[in-house]
Amino acid sequence: MMVSEATGMSKLHMAIFAVLLAFLVALPFFVYPVFAMKVMCFALFAAAFNLLLGFGGLLSFGHAAYFGGASYVAAHAAKVWGLTPELAVLCGTAAAAVLGLVIGSLAIRRQGIYFAMVTLAFAQMIYFLALQLPFTGGEDGLQSVPRGRLFGIFSLQDSLPLYFFVLAVTLGGILFLYRVVHSPFGQVLKAIRENEPRAISLGYDVNRYKLMVFVLSATFAGLAGAVKSQVFQLASLTDVHWSMSGEVVLMALLGGMGTIFGPLVGAAIVVSMQNYFATFGAWVTVMQGVIFVLGVLLFREGLIGVLSRWLKRPL
Amino acid sequence: MSVMLEARGLTKEFKGFVAVNRVDLRVEKGSIHALIGPNGAGKTTCFNLLTKFLQPTSGTITYDGRDITRLAPAEIARLGLVRSFQISAVFPELSVLQNVRVALQRKRGESYDFWRSEAFLRRYDDEARHHINEVGLSDFTDHRAAELSYGRKRALEIAATLALDPDMLLLDEPMAGMAQADVERISALIRRVAVNRTILMVEHNLSVVANLSDRITVLARGEILAEGDYATVSKNPDVIDAYIGAGHA
Ligand SMILES: Nc1ncnc2c1ncn2[C@@H]1O[C@H](COP(=O)(O)OP(=O)(O)O)[C@@H](O)[C@H]1O
Ligand SMILES: [Mg+2]
């Protein structure tokens, strides 16, 4: 596979990203893009989660903590502190990074299912805090978060600036995660995932790498949640609920964990399902469950994983 | 001659079962030292203890004059004491080239750079190819490691280990599963790299052991049975009983 020296990207991947970018730039001129913004936020969330699961080999069952935690902090920063959107998003993201560092340093000492359980337990604590703390709005969450002026200039009340803000941040985040996967660090991560004892015998402190990938993953999950709170002017208990942690697992597995484009496709599918099946009420969860089971049974490697195998190209 | 690696009273118990029992081992600097013994004698467990993949129940380990009994395995590797595994240890989804580069990049320390392009690692390609060539894998440079035959995986593991330029190597059955031609190639390679290094190896192929090693320690049921050069050890009646008598003639 030829990889460009400057971008570190294969030609195929560059072409796919270019088409995606062109499509997303044109989109708001044809349809009202709320749905697209939601998909973009979840695509970044799923890509961040996939960094940890697909490339770090670590299954977190508590990623709602970073997504939702950041969403609360960003909403609070915009609403109560009156910060501009980019600063509010930055606050939320930083909070997720700190949370990731604290929880990650405790969780990485455990392996496999115990690791997943520790991450879940901490996420439940964050949920409890979101429910109980005085400034989180309890059951209602933080509503009517104002859409301020980006850099104090562009009003995000207007849908185009808002849309391009979301596009720039989410696609930028996804490209950054791509770079992490295809970096010297990413190379070590793959080595650890494939044969941890061997990586240790080569002298790698594997726990440091695991912690670092955990923090990076939490940070970008936080970025996604923070942006989402600005788009929907809302931080709610849904964002920190364990089912949100489950949804992101679903997105990554459905699209194909350990692939580049899988999480994006998975996010688009899950968000579409929720939108179009919304009228079925509680049945959405059941349908999601059925699709998940079918998806896992039919394509274990996920949609993009299967496609990648057919085309014999990493996607 | 000075001692490179020394274990004193090395003991490992697994839930009451003593796998390694008060082993005293001295490996001279610059020597090739073989550790032999029947299956289940505790050779691999010894390696795990010496490289701290297992914590000894009791005993001390010194490496190059330094007490390493309490160090973490990755720290020991960074001190230049590098092991291989009995079950071939490669990174299956990485190419042969990438497998060796992973070893090279650790020495240089850009391995935490998550913002840099992977293309940066191309600076190690020439050096990696040199090590790949040394073990006779040039024709497979761009193959995924998973596609290699068992013997070639072992060769790749040795190439990656040598890429670290360690002062001492612990090789756990490096030639198991190799074709005769490869055994000869790897024997020659081990002899070549041993010139300014110390090697402790577990090996079942007795002609290889006889050819390569300066000194042999025989282990049986977790305890040292005999020690000396090949001529001495192979005449020892206990050894003939425990080792050769056990079907390893
Ligand atoms: N992790 C472990 N737990 C319990 N028993 C073990 C463990 N590792 C090795 N053993 C036992 O210790 C003994 C020595 O094993 P090993 O060191 O692998 O022998 P060798 O490499 O000489 O063939 C065997 O009886 C084996 O079953
Ligand atoms: Mg063994």
How would you describe the overall organization of this protein?
The complex is a heterodimer of chains A (315) and B (249). Chain A has 315 residues and is mainly α. Chain A has a domain at 31-241. Helix content of chain A is 71%, strand content 1%. Chain A contains 14 helices and 2 strands; from the N terminus they run H-H-H-H-H-E-E-H-H-H-H-H-H-H-H-H. Chain A has helices at residues 11-26, 34-55, 64-79, 85-107, 112-132, 159-181, 184-194, 196-201, 206-231, 237-240, 242-255, 262-276, 283-298, 302-311, and strands spanning 149-150, 154-155. In chain A, helix 3 (64-79) runs parallel beside helix 5 and helix 6 (159-181) runs antiparallel to helix 9. The longest helix of chain A is centred in the last third of the chain and has 26 residues, at 206-231. Chain B is an alpha/beta fold and 249 residues long. Chain B has a single domain (3-245), classed as Rossmann fold (3-Layer(aba) Sandwich), CATH 3.40.50.300. In chain B, 34% of the residues lie in helices and 25% in strands. Chain B is built from 9 helices and 10 strands. Chain B has a 6-stranded mixed sheet. In chain B, a hairpin with a 2-residue loop joins strand 9 and strand 10 (223-228). The model of chain B has no long low-confidence stretch (mean pLDDT 91). The chains are: A mainly alpha (315), B alpha/beta (249). The A-B interface holds A 3-8, 179-180, 182-188, 190-191, 194-195, 197-206, 208-209, 212, 216 and B 51, 53, 72-74, 77-78, 82-85, 89-94, 98, 101-103, 105-106, 110-121, 157, 160, 164. The complex binds adenosine-5'-diphosphate and magnesium ion. Adenosine-5'-diphosphate (ADP) binds next to helix 1 of chain B.
Query: By helix and strand content of chain B, what is the structural category?
Result: alpha/beta
Count the strands of chain B?
A: 10
Main beta-sheet strand count, sense and barrel state of chain A = 2 strands, antiparallel
Q: What gross morphology of chain B would you assign?
A: globular
Distance between the termini of chain A: 12 Å
**Class based on secondary structure composition and strand pairing of chain A:** mainly alpha
Query: Which bin fits the share of residues in helices of chain A?
Result: over 70%
CATH topology of chain B: Rossmann fold
Query: In the CATH hierarchy, what is the architecture of chain B at level 2?
Result: 3-Layer(aba) Sandwich
**How many strands appear in the DSSP assignment of chain A?**
2
Contiguous helical run count of chain A: 14
What's the gyration radius of chain A in Å? Answer: 19 Å
CATH class of chain B, named Alpha Beta
Shape of chain A: globular
Radius of gyration of chain B: 18 Å
